Amino acid sequence: MSGGAVRGAVPARRFPSAGTADGEAGPVVLIERGEQLAQLRRNVLSCEKRRQGHVALVTGPVGSGKTQLLESFGTWAATTGARVLTAAGSRAEQGLPFGVLGQLLHGARRAGSDTTRVEELTREAAGAVPTAEARGAADELPAEGPMWQPLLREVFTTLLDLVDRGPLVLVVDDLQHVDATSLHCLLYVTRRLNHAPVMVLLSETLTLGPANPLFHAELRSRPQLSHLALPPLAVDSVARQLHERGGGHGSTPSGEVVQEARRLHQMTGGNPLLVQALVAEPVRRTASGRGAPVMRVGDAFGRAVLHSLYRHEPDARNVARALAVLDRPAPQELLGQLLGLLPASVASALRVLHSSGLVDTDRLRHPRILHAVLSDTPAEVRQRLHERAARTLHEYGAEPGVVAGHLVASGWTGEEWVTPVLQDAAAQALSAGRPDLTVGYLRLGCGAGTDEERRKALAAMLVNARWQVNPLAAGGDLDRLMRSAGPDRGSSSSAVAAVPYLLWQGRAEEAAEAVAATPVGKAAEAGPGSAEGADSGDGRLQAMRLLVSLSHPDFLVSARTSRSPWSGAATAPHSVSPLLQSLSVLAGALLPAEEVDSTAAAEQFLQRHHLDRGGHGLLVAPLLALLYGGRADRVVAWSGTLLGRPEVRHTPVWRSVVRAIRAEAALRLGDLAEAEKSARTALEDLPAPAWGVAVGVPLATLITCATESGRHAEADRWLAEPVPPGLFRTPMGAHYLIARGAHHLGMGRYQAASSDFQRCGAMMRGWNLEAAGLAPWRLELARVQIGLGNRTHAAQLLREQLHVPHGLDERTRGRALHLLATTAAPDHRRKLLTKAVELFRSCGDQLGLARALADDDQGLSQAGEPGRTVPFLLRAENAGQGPGAGPWVRKAPEWQGASGEAPSGVEGADRDDVLSEAELRVAVLAARGQTNRQISDALFITVSTVEQHLTRTYRKLNVRQRTDLPSWLLAVDGHEPGKVQSKVS
After folding, report:
1. pLDDT score at 496
2. How far is Cα 288 from Cα 968, in angstroms, rounded to an integer?
3. Which residues contact 234 (CB under 8 A, 6 or more apart)?
4. Is CB count within 10 Å lower at the N or C end of the chain?
């Protein structure tokens, strides 16, 4: 091409580009449009060569890069000598006659063409143009009138004046918004391109309906027309952008980059505007290490979504908002009813939203798009949409939870069907373990006008839901519920529903009164004869009576002492109330009898109900039954399973309760670190004031962990935490008294310890709860007597403990035998310790096992036999101090002085008697039966070194040969696999 070139005065508007971090207009970045750009270049070169015009129409959805393509082409064409005039349509100026033509004429005037005459004609014609309301189609205009023919000829003549020194390129962006008068002028020009080197380049965005149909009907009949449709970006294109953004040039994108490109493509549908915004956002890895998932942060993507949304027509924008409010797939008929649109209009809106990457089939493509659309929707519009959605979805028979969500969001309760729907949704949410959702439904339902009975039922459900989230917040609702029950609580189901929460707060009198006032309660208290005639088939009422009696044993004593109503329920078929069955399992553990295996019943119940949604409360009693039955190992296993359930994160109370039970179980297994961690987490999830009388359980565990670890100051801090007075009317109070007494004992305060243990014993005897797994107070009192030197009294207490008729678990029995050994003669002591070791092995109590082994070693040393345990324990203690240390490294209290020092026979031992790390590794493998050569290969040392280590080990442990090693090294290894295995490996 030859000649100069002058750009038009009205440049094409620019889309937000990835070239700027804030998403504002910046340097044009043309993405993957090389093929289309090449075709346009060929078209303009053909115009110059053949001296014949051409029309190119570029179409694509919002954000597809049309404007970028036009601007890139215009810049290139101008540099080759073509005259380039630019204009752009606007929705706001679509009613302005000759608006786009005026932009082109302005460019022509700047290029040196005389536009005076044509501008005069346009001013005259503008006054005769009918308004849009008076026309049919948007581009329909009468072609008659004395001004039109001179005007059209003058327009074409003015443009031809610019062709003398090179081809002319007319670039018009956003054709769908061009005014009708300018469209007529453009059509006139396109009809006369056969012998004029003029290229007309148009771009048009996809709209809900055909834009300017008359214009297109004639334009598409032109033989010089070429149509370029811009497709979405492919995954490879997105990957190349990411690769270049990360500084990679020339090389192939990595697999990680391609994977991220797929994710971005799924988020955007390949829309260039949205892709550029995401690529420009900063990246944050969600985990450490190469290949970890990344998260894009910033608001560039949200702004791009809104930029796209506002380029669409109002109906498309409203459909997007409706999809955001619904937040679920919705049929077109439902959307149409929600918005008052015809299904065909909804279908058109979904089509254009899908083409621009905002919608995937029948919902918004990504949560970030949904968030951007919702945040831009005015509050009153959202509220109105939620109300309409609730009405429409209810008419369509949607699930109550779906309808209720929109009712809560709108706050609307204007029709009779609303309250029943909210009640059904609340019941479903509670069953699904979502009390957080239930609270919102019930708050709205309680405020709606409804009958008194339904309001009471809603209030009872509200207390249940709020208590599961935060018991402190449920206090006011609980008081209102009790007031609504009135003085005659026996006929009020709401009073009975409040029983568990009253007990949690320690209001046992009110709970007992509510249950006793029911027909079942009255019949039971009147005696067996009356009970037979009562309706005792109400499993829930029977369960409430048993709950009161077990949690506060001073009340409704007959509920647990009369075993017939509940003893068979623990192993009954499914027809029995699950709540009654659950509590019957716990009652069987607290009131053991030969005919009931409470631990087996607990296992069966957990197996049957652990997958039930919303059934967390049913599982607490069987967990406690396993704990009190001596199966702490199963409690740890089951609690891990229950805490791994997804819905547990929505129920802080049940999550904390399960963790507290897990902590106590870990403590009974000797795992102080896990016990302390679980108890601390339970109190972090649910602050101490919210625990009510149950706070005694996690506090008792933490006090015991600190005491066992020798951190007495920390134990004092836990003891300083306030506890409700009602705690000591519950079995949880027995836990607390045992822990507090053990702390006093560890500090040498024998009188205070004895007082706590005797008080615990008085409580247990008064309640007739002799399950040793709950609180072995006789055993603890015997420890005090041993400390005071009263071994005879201690032995008597221990024998009483061992002769409890039922419910003596292995751990309590092992502890009792271990303590009894300290009071026995030397010839009998070894037998007792051997049996204690067996029991500790069986129940898994690592701490008890280590202490029994230590005392066994001390007895052997005193008898003149070689000791084999204490040196290793002392060596491990040095490496394992602190709350995370393995519990087996602690010295046994039976041979630990009040000052915390070991006896002289141990403390006075030469520290050279302690095994080194290397000697320990060799000794463990030798104890396993490996040869010196095998040990050499396993530890990568020479055989000579192995022999030297074994020689020193034999001398330090006072043994003659390796066959003397297995009895203690394997015992320690079996109960501390992590520590010893890490040393070996």
Report:
1. 87
2. 42
3. 32, 265, 270
4. C
**Pairing relation of β-strands 54-60 and 83-88?**
unpaired
The sign of the torsion formed by the CA atoms of 328, 331, 335, 338 equals negative
8 Å CB contact between 352 and 369: no
Measuring CA to CA, which residue among 321, 317, 305 is closest to residue 385? 321
The rounded distance, in Å, linking the Cα atoms of 206 and 725 is 73
Task: State the CB neighbour count (10 A cutoff) for residue 413.
Answer: 17
The alpha carbons of the chain give a radius of gyration, in whole angstroms, of 42
The sign one gets for the Cα dihedral 896, 899, 900, 905 is: negative
d(Cα 766, Cα 758) in Å, to the nearest integer? Answer: 12
Neighbouring CB atoms inside 10 A of 212's CB total: 20
By the 8 A CB rule, do 322 and 337 touch? no
User: Dihedrals φ, ψ of 57, to 5°?
Assistant: -115, 120
d(CA 615, CA 619): 7
122-178 tens-digit pLDDT: 888 887 776 654 444 455 555 556 778 888 999 998 888 888 777 999 999 999 999
In this predicted model, what pLDDT tens digit does every residue of 652-691 receive, in sequence order?
Answer: 999 999 999 999 999 999 999 999 999 999 999 999 999 9
DSSP code of residue 476: H
Residue found under tokens 């005491």: 707
- Calpha distance 635→626 (Å, rounded): 6
Instruction: Look at residue 136 in the predicted model and tell me its pLDDT.
Output: 47
Distance CA 357, CA 119 (A): 42
Residue 671: Cβ-neighbour burial (10 angstroms; 0-12, 13-18, 19+): buried
Output the CA torsion sign for 268, 273, 276, 278: negative
The answer for residues whose C-beta is within 8 angstroms of residue 84's C-beta and 6 or more apart is: 5, 6, 7, 8, 74, 77, 78, 107, 169, 171
**Average pLDDT in the chain:** 83
649 burial class (0-12, 13-18, 19+ CB within 10 angstroms)?
exposed
d(CA 362, CA 349): 11
Q: What type of residue sits at position 260?
A: E
Helix/strand/coil for 59: strand
Among 338, 342, 275, 341, smallest CA distance to 308 is for: 275
Rounded CA separation 739/742 (Å): 5
Instruction: Indicate the residue type of 873.
Output: L
Amino acid at 358: L
* Residue 282 clears pLDDT 90, i.e. is over it: no
Rounded distance between C-alpha atoms, residue 853 and residue 839, angstroms: 12
Q: Tell me what pLDDT residue 203 has.
A: 95
pTM of the complete model: 0.73
With a CB cutoff of 8 Å and minimum separation 6, the contacts of 564 are none
User: Which of 810, 883, 872 lies closest to 845, judged by CA?
Assistant: 810
Which residues on adjacent β-strands are paired with residue 200? 55, 170
87 φ/ψ sector (left φ>0, alpha ψ -120 to 50, else beta)? beta
Please give the Cα distance from 154 to 675 (Å, whole number): 93
List phi, psi (to 5°) of 775. -160, 95
Write the pLDDT tens digit of every residue in 384-416.
Answer: 999 999 999 999 999 999 999 999 999 999 898
DSSP, residue by residue, 356-407: TTSEETTEES-HHHHHHHHHHS-HHHHHHHHHHHHHHHHHTT--HHHHHHHH
- Residue entry with tokens 């089939």: 361
First to last CA, the chain: 79
> Cα–Cα distance between 162 and 110 in angstroms, integer?
11
Cβ contact 343:336 at 8 Å = yes
How many distinct helices (H) and strands (E) make up the chain?
Answer: 51, 9
Report which residue type is found at 545: R
53 DSSP 8-state letter? -
Q: Is the CA virtual torsion 766, 772, 773, 776 positive or negative?
A: positive
Residue 536 and residue 524: Cα distance in Å, rounded?
A: 9
Task: Name the 3-class secondary structure at 531.
Answer: helix
